[in-house]
Write a structure and sequence with these properties.
alpha+beta, five-stranded antiparallel sheet, 5 strands
C-alpha cells in the first residue's frame, strides 16, 4: 500500500454516496492501479474506500485526485508497472498525477 493525500475532492459523481467519497487533506492508501478507458486515465483502488456495485459505473478514483511524497511516488511507479500490462507510456500516466506535496508524518 502506498500512502497519498487527497488534493481534489470536487465533482463527486451522484452515483457515489458521500460516505464513499474522498476528502481533501485526508490520507489514503493505494492498493492497486488501473488504466481506465476510453481516455487512458490512471486510476486507483484505495484501501479505505470500497467503490462497490452501489457506485456503478464508478469503481476507481482518478489519480489526479491525489498527491504523493517523492519517495511514495517512486513506489507508485513500481506499483503501476506491477499492476498493468499496457502499452501506455509511464510518462503519459505519471503526467496525470498533480504536483507533489509533502505529507506530514504523524
Amino acid at each position: 500500500m502506498i500512502e497519498c493525500v487527497c488534493c481534489d475532492d470536487s465533482a463527486k459523481p451522484k452515483a457515489i454516496p458521500q460516505n464513499k467519497w474522498v476528502k481533501n487533506g485526508e490520507k489514503y492508501h493505494v492498493i492497486y492501479t488501473v488504466t481506465v478507458l476510453p481516455k487512458k486515465q490512471l486510476a486507483f483502488h484505495l484501501a479505505e474506500i470500497d467503490l462497490d456495485e452501489t457506485c456503478t459505473p464508478f469503481t476507481f478514483f482518478l489519480a489526479k485526485r491525489f498527491s504523493f511524497t517523492i519517495d511514495n511516488l517512486k513506489l507508485l511507479m513500481e506499483l503501476i508497472k506491477d499492476c498493468s500490462d499496457t502499452d501506455f507510456s509511464m510518462d503519459e500516466l505519471m503526467e496525470q498525477i498533480p504536483e507533489l506535496i509533502p505529507i506530514e508524518n504523524d
